[in-house]
C-alpha cells in the first residue's frame, strides 16, 4: 500500500467541499488531477470512498470513516512539522554546556548572565565537570558543546580557540625566591628555572592543564627529579591552602587567580611565558540546534574578546 500524504489531503478537501471543481480551486489543481488522485487512493485502499453524481460528491461508509480518522491525524502531523520547523529555526529552549571547574568559575558566569540578557528565550544550563568528563559528554551528545583547555587530541571534535591563559607561580610572600625576583627588578616575575629544587603542589592529571605544566617544567630543567610534586589536588582552593601552610609552591593557570588576588599569597608571572589555549569544542560534522548555535556564537564572541585576568 502506497498512500501519499497528498492523496489524503485532496480526499479531505473533497470530503469537505463535496465538489471536485471546488477542491481543485482550493488546492490549485485541475479537476482532472483531483479525480486522478481519488482514483489512485481508492485503488491503493481497494475500496470505494466516493459516490459522484451530476450534482455532488457523496462519501461512502468507508469514505466517512477515512475522513473521520484521517482529519485529526493530518492536523497532528501538520502541528508536529510546524513544531519541528520552529525548533530548527527559533532560538529557544534549553542548551547544555559542559566546562571544567576553573573555567566554569572564571568565565561562565558572565556568559550565563549575557545569555539571560540577550537570549531570554533560552535556558542555559552549565554542567560543571572535570575536563575528561567534559570531553566525554560532548562526544556522547549529553551536552551541546564544551569549554575546555586545549585537549591533547581533537579526533572527532571541532574546536575554535578563544583566548590564551598564561601560567603563574603562587608562593608565600616571605618565600626565599621573592628577594631574588626583587633583586632582578621583577617583583612579580620568576623564571621557570628558578623553581628548580622547590617542592610543588599541583593540580592532578584530571585537570586539562597538568600535562602543559609538566611539559613546561621539563623544558626548563625542572623535571620530577629536580622539582618533586609533593601534593596533587583536584581544586585550586586546596592548592592555595597548602601553599599557605608551607607545604610547597604552586603553578596555576592565570584564570585560577581571583580577580581581587590572593591576600595571603604572592602571584608571580612565569618567564618565558607559557600559555594554555581555552577552546570551544563540539562534535564534528554535527549541526547544533538553533538555540545551541546562538549560545555558541555568544560565548565565542564574549570569551574571544574578554581579557585574561
Task: Tell me the layout of helices and strands.
Blueprint lengths: L4 H13 L2 H8 L3 H15 L4 E3 L4 E3 L1 H29 L3 E7 L1 H6 L1 H11 L3 E7 L2 H10 L4 E5 L7 E15 L5 H7 L5 E3 L8 E4 L6 H10 L9 E5 L2 H9 L4 E5 L12 E6 L3 E9 L6 H16 L4
Parallel strand pairs: 3-4, 3-5, 7-11, 8-9, 8-10
Antiparallel strand pairs: 1-2, 5-12, 6-10, 6-11, 6-12
Pfam families: HTH_1, LysR_substrate
Organism: Comamonas sediminis
Protein name: LysR family transcriptional regulator
**Assembly category:** single chain
- How many DSSP helices? 11
User: How are helices and strands ordered from N to C?
Assistant: HHHEEHEHHEHEEHEEHEHEEEH
Query: How much of the sequence is in beta strands?
Result: 15-25%
Q: Helicity level, as a percent range?
A: 40-55%
* Shape label: rod-shaped
Q: Mean pLDDT across all residues, rounded?
A: 89
Strand pairing plus helix content: what structural class? alpha/beta
The biggest sheet, with number of strands, parallel, antiparallel or mixed sense and barrel status, is: 10 strands, mixed
Can you walk me through this structure?
There is one protein chain. It contains 11 helices and 12 strands. The protein has helices at residues 5-17, 20-27, 31-45, 61-89, 101-106, 108-118, 131-140, 177-183, 210-219, 236-244, 290-305; strands at residues 50-52, 57-59, 93-99, 122-128, 145-149, 157-171, 189-191, 200-203, 229-233, 249-253, 266-271, 275-283. α1 (5-17) packs across α2 and α1 (5-17) crosses α3 (31-45). It is of the alpha/beta class and 309 residues long. Pfam families: HTH_1, LysR_substrate.
Amino acid at each position: 500500500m502506497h498512500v501519499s500524504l497528498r492523496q489524503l489531503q485532496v480526499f479531505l478537501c473533497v470530503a469537505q467541499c463535496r465538489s471536485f471543481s471546488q477542491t481543485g480551486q482550493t488546492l490549485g489543481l485541475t479537476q482532472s488531477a483531483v479525480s486522478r488522485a481519488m482514483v489512485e487512493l481508492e485503488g491503493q485502499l481497494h475500496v470505494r470512498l466516493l459516490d459522484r453524481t451530476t450534482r455532488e460528491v457523496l462519501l461512502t461508509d468507508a469514505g466517512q470513516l477515512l475522513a473521520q480518522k484521517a482529519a485529526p491525524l493530518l492536523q497532528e502531523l501538520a502541528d508536529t512539522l510546524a513544531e519541528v520547523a520552529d525548533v530548527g529555526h527559533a532560538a529557544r529552549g534549553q542548551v547544555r554546556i559542559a566546562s571544567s571547574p576553573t573555567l566554569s568559575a572564571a568565565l561562565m558566569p558572565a556568559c550565563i548572565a549575557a545569555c539571560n540578557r540577550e537570549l531570554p528565550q533560552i535556558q542555559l544550563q552549565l554542567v560543571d565537570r572535570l575536563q575528561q568528563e567534559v570531553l566525554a559528554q560532548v562526544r556522547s551528545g549529553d551536552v551541546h558543546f564544551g569549554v575546555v583547555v586545549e585537549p591533547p587530541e581533537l579526533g572527532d571534535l571541532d574546536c575554535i580557540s578563544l583566548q590564551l591563559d598564561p601560567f603563574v607561580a603562587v608562593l608565600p610572600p616571605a618565600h626565599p625566591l621573592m628577594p631574588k625576583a626583587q633583586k632582578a627588578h621583577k617583583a612579580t616575575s620568576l623564571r621557570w628555572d628558578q623553581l628548580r629544587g622547590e617542592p610543588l603542589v599541583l593540580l592532578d592529571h584530571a585537570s586539562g592543564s597538568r600535562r602543559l605544566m609538566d611539559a613546561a617544567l621539563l623544558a626548563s630543567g625542572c623535571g620530577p627529579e629536580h622539582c618533586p610534586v609533593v601534593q596533587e589536588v583536584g581544586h585550586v582552593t586546596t592548592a592555595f591552602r597548602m601553599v599557605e601552610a608551607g607545604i610547597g609552591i604552586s603553578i596555576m593557570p592565570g584564570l585560577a587567580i581571583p580577580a581581587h588576588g590572593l591576600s595571603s599569597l604572592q602571584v608571580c608571572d612565569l618567564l618565558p611565558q607559557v600559555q594554555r589555549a581555552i577552546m570551544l569544542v563540539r562534535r564534528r560534522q554535527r549541526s547544533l540546534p538553533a538555540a545551541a548555535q546562538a549560545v555558541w556564537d555568544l560565548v565565542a564572541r564574549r570569551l574571544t574578546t574578554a581579557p585574561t585576568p
